[in-house]
């Protein structure tokens, strides 16, 4: 990869890095999109030109993520956070229960919203352990009467990630995949619904992807405000009102980029390689650095770690910033350091960070 312009080593947790090639293409097309004499942002969302962009993005996502026919793909707004609300609003009735698997701050927020509509119950929680790990499948207690089970596939703040998912039989499984969607292959048919804010792995903020099985959607409450009904967006191909057109265009371009990289197998291997550079430095540092997550639960997307000495940690973050590494401060609720190595973060950036960490240890031990 050639960096013709100054590009930061961007480890931001979200919004986060986008592929340089995508940004350059968007730049080239910005003032005259496909001979229309206007940018994508200036097109009518009812125009054939935009509809093609919209439908191509849906088709690309279906193909790349191998989404079966009996699932709808929606582009919504309000972020993953509005899904925390829409899910119970549509699928949980007063007096009914839903099982939530608590693996971090985002899971907690989802749980909190469900209380407005019904009774969320904890199927498992690793809070006592400061969310260092994903619960063992055998320790998950799903309420047999639950309307659905909710989990967070990758815990952006704590740096843990599910390696295998529970199977929930007839009870719909719903996953917040905001921070690891499209980072690897997933068996979509194991889930009744998958949702993700775009700004980590899929594109800029503003679009929220919802992938939902038709039989779940059929059970949705229709006695709620129009914009908050999944049915409204299904019926209108996510064009009920003005969608975030530029975001959808960018999402489509990111998906094209993933295709050009060789698809999810290549992306997955690359993500493993990228994370390994950094985890290897942590593991070989004799305790100079230590990870937050237990080894079996480590995320390939968000690498959370500490420098054992607190003063040195401050120095590490300051010098890393100086050296051009952006976004390495841990989330304010956890502290420490976090490197987010989403799909668009190049191998070179992870390698450079690993080298920097080794050098910093040598200089400060
Ligand atoms: C970032 C994030 C969210 C919040 O997404 P918004 O689009 O900002 O609402 C929710 N869940 C997870 C796992 C996240 O990483």
From TrEMBL:
It is found in: Cytoplasm. The modification N6-(pyridoxal phosphate)lysine is found at residue 200. InterPro entries: Aminotrans_V_dom (IPR000192), Pser_aminoTfrase (IPR022278), PyrdxlP-dep_Trfase (IPR015424), PyrdxlP-dep_Trfase_major (IPR015421), PyrdxlP-dep_Trfase_small (IPR015422). Pathway: Amino-acid biosynthesis; L-serine biosynthesis; L-serine from 3-phospho-D-glycerate: step 2/3. The keyword Translocase does not apply. L-glutamate binds at residue 46. Its cofactor is pyridoxal 5'-phosphate. Residues 9-348 form the Aminotransferase class V domain. Keywords: Amino-acid biosynthesis, Aminotransferase, Cytoplasm, Pyridoxal phosphate, Serine biosynthesis, Transferase. Its EC number is 2.6.1.52. It comes from the Bacteria. It catalyses: 4-(phosphooxy)-L-threonine + 2-oxoglutarate = (R)-3-hydroxy-2-oxo-4-phosphooxybutanoate + L-glutamate; O-phospho-L-serine + 2-oxoglutarate = 3-phosphooxypyruvate + L-glutamate. Pyridoxal 5'-phosphate binds at residues 80-81, 106, 156, 176, 199, 241-242. GO terms for molecular function: O-phospho-L-serine:2-oxoglutarate aminotransferase activity. Binds 1 pyridoxal phosphate per subunit. PANTHER family: PHOSPHOSERINE AMINOTRANSFERASE. Homodimer. Catalyzes the reversible conversion of 3-phosphohydroxypyruvate to phosphoserine and of 3-hydroxy-2-oxo-4-phosphonooxybutanoate to phosphohydroxythreonine. Belongs to the class-V pyridoxal-phosphate-dependent aminotransferase family. SerC subfamily. This is Phosphoserine aminotransferase. The gene is serC.
């Amino acid at each position: 990869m050639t960096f013709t312009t100054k590009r930061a080593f961007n480890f931001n947790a979200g919004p986060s890095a986008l592929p340089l090639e995508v940004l350059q293409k968007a730049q080239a097309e910005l003032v005259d999109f496909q001979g229309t004499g206007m940018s994508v942002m200036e097109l009518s969302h009812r125009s054939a030109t935009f509809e093609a962009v919209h439908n191509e993005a849906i088709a690309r996502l279906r193909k790349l993520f191998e989404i079966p026919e009996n699932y709808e793909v929606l582009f919504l707004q309000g972020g993953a956070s509005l899904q925390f609300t829409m899910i119970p609003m549509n699928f949980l009735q007063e007096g009914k229960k839903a099982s939530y698997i608590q693996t971090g701050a985002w899971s907690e927020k989802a749980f909190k919203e469900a209380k407005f509509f019904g009774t969320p119950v904890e199927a498992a929680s690793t809070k006592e352990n400061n969310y260092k790990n994903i619960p063992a499948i055998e320790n998950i207690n799903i309420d047999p009467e639950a309307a659905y089970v909710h989990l967070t596939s990758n815990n952006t703040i704590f740096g843990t990630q599910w390696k295998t998912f529970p199977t929930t039989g007839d009870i719909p499984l719903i996953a917040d995949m905001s921070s690891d969607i499209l980072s690897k292959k997933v068996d979509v048919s194991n889930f009744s619904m998958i949702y993700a804010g775009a700004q980590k792995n899929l594109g800029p903020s503003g679009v929220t992807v919802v992938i939902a099985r038709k039989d779940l959607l059929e059970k949705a409450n229709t006695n709620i405000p129009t914009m908050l009904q999944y049915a409204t967006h299904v019926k209108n191909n996510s064009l009920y009102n003005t969608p975030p057109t530029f975001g959808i265009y960018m999402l489509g371009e990111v998906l094209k980029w993933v295709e050009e990289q060789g698809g999810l197998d290549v992306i997955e291997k690359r993500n493993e390689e990228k994370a390994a550079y950094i985890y290897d430095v942590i593991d070989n540092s004799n305790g100079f650095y230590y990870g937050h997550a237990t080894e079996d639960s480590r995320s390939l997307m968000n690498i959370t770690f500490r420098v054992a000495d607190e003063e040195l940690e401050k120095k590490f973050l300051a010098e890393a910033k100086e050296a051009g590494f952006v976004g390495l401060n841990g989330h304010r609720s956890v502290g420490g350091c976090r490197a987010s190595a989403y799909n668009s973060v190049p191998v070179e950036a992870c390698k450079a960070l690993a080298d920097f960490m080794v050098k910093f240890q040598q200089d400060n031990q």
